[in-house]
Amino acid sequence: MDELRNKILESAEVLPGGVLKVDSFLNHQIDVKLVDKMAKEWYERFKEEKITKILTIESAGIALSTMVATYFGVPVVYAKKSRNASFGNDYYSTHVISYTHGQAYDVYISKKVLDKNDRVLLVDDFLANGSAMKILIHLAEASGAKVAGAAVAIEKSYLGGGKDIRSIGYRLESLVKIKELGHGKIIFED
Ligand code: 5GP
């Protein structure tokens, strides 16, 4: 997607460790017009899929997901980093290791918000090694929901997470793919 690619080249910073900082338009300040175009693009790609819910992880994916959900006319569910007392024992959970911070934590989804009647579209800002997306797949499938596809803004294709997820049979659509990142250099796949 050209607009996202141009915005990355204009405004993103490459941090040590291969982390792309997109705080000026995606992760802290949000460029609403750009995110709206991204959401529309995913809607066009997945509109035949009878999506009933958008599923993401707190917190970076939430803003993106709400825009996507508006096009589909469905709710957003986000996996939470803390468990509400009201969940009781009725929740699905799994362990996560953060790509950007290296910390480990658990995420939770109440059984009340996802079940076997749902067809979910998974949404996230980045896909690197694929762990966050696999966690969403795991949580969705634990609930009995069907994963209709995964939508990612920026795929770091050099890390192979995307290849992995596609090879186990999931439809994954990313808006841009980065094949090289480092020392101020960002190289996209065609
Ligand atoms: P994965 O689990 O696929 O290895 O990493 C994806 C998760 O890590 C995403 O949820 C995203 O929030 C975070 N992430 C991965 N790479 C980057 C990056 O270069 N920049 C930012 N801001 N977040 C990233």
Give a description of the structure.
By secondary structure, the protein is α/β, with parallel strands linked by helices. It has one domain (32-178): Rossmann fold (3-Layer(aba) Sandwich), CATH 3.40.50.2020. Helices cover 30% and strands 34% of the residues. It is built from 5 helices and 10 strands. It has helices at 2-11, 32-46, 60-72, 131-142, 161-167; strands spanning 13-15, 19-21, 53-57, 76-79, 91-97, 104-110, 119-127, 146-156, 172-182, 185-188. The longest helix is centred in the N-terminal third of the chain and has 15 residues, at 32-46. The model has no long low-confidence stretch (mean pLDDT 95). It binds guanosine-5'-monophosphate. Guanosine-5'-monophosphate (5GP) is lined by residues 19-20, 22, 27, 60, 99-100, 124-133, 161.
Secondary-structure topology with pairs:
Elements: H1 2-11, E1 13-15, E2 19-21, H2 32-46, E3 53-57, H3 60-72, E4 76-79, E5 91-97, E6 104-110, E7 119-127, H4 131-142, E8 146-156, H5 161-167, E9 172-182, E10 185-188
Parallel strand pairs: 3-4, 3-7, 7-8, 8-9
Antiparallel strand pairs: 1-2, 5-6, 9-10
Helix pairs in contact: 2-3
Shape: globular
Examine the secondary-structure arrangement and name the CATH architecture: 3-Layer(aba) Sandwich
Q: Strands of the biggest beta sheet: in what spatial order?
A: 4-3-7-8-9-10
CATH class: Alpha Beta
Number of strands: 10
Gyration radius from CA atoms, angstroms? 16 Å
Beta content comes to 25-35%
Intertermini distance = 10 Å
